[in-house]
Amino acid sequence: MRFGVLVSGAGTNLQALLDAQARGELAPATIAAVISNKPDAPALERAARAGVPAEVVDHRGLAREVFEDRLLAALAAHGVEAVVLAGFMRVLTAHFVERFPYRIVNTHPSLLPAFPGVDAIARTLAHGVKLAGVTVHFVDASLDGGPIIAQVAVPIEDGDDVGALRAKIQREEHQLLPRVVQRLAAGRLSCQGRHVTCARAE
């Protein structure tokens, strides 16, 4: 299964996918293209170093549907069959999502449905909860509301600030996301309503 990875920033989750692919742990998934909505995203350099096609589809000055149409055209040009949102800071509408039913996954730095949207880690700390975490979920037209595929909890310790908690969450995220992508490509994930199951490897 050929994946397109959409990015906006540093690309640490993209790097985790690229590293897994280099180790042979992502098959039958292949990272076919990386697309950023920001021309200066460091993630583009990560893709280039790995020899993965990378390009920019800038959202600025475009109506949302026009931007999404350009994204879809870029993905189609690379034969993309499924999509990973890896730090992609744009909300996708049904116009885009419906082209890839149950084939778009997103990673989010909280235990959804808690703290959807931006600044999830800061809001987690502000609420005084004892567990943070990471969620990988299918994407629908809602904000971080699609069916949950997998979660890993991360304890919050006394003295944790945003930076420390982010680092702990990212360590789990960088392991979880490649596993989910591999399972999706292998046909091991199925979704009925909001319930996602993962078949055992043969």
Strand content: 15-25%
Helix content: 25-40%
**Number of DSSP helical runs:** 6
Q: How many individual β-strands?
A: 9
Reading off the top of the CATH hierarchy, the class is best stated as: Alpha Beta
Could you say how many structural domains there are in total? Answer: 1
Report strand order across the widest sheet.
3-2-1-4-5-6-7
| Gap from first CA to last CA | 18 Å
The third-level CATH topology is Rossmann fold
What would the average pLDDT be, to the nearest integer? 95
Which consecutive residue ranges, at least 5 long each, have pLDDT under 50?
none
- Apparent shape: globular
Radius of gyration: 16 Å
In summary, what is this structure?
By secondary structure, the protein is of the alpha/beta class. The chain contains 6 helices and 9 strands; from the N terminus they run E-H-E-H-E-H-E-H-E-H-E-E-H-E-E.
Explained architecture:
The chain is α/β, with parallel strands linked by helices. It contains six helices and nine strands; from the N terminus they run E-H-E-H-E-H-E-H-E-H-E-E-H-E-E. The chain has helices at residues 12-22, 43-50, 64-77, 94-97, 120-126, 162-185, and strands at residues 2-7, 30-36, 54-56, 82-85, 104-108, 131-138, 148-155, 189-192, 195-198.
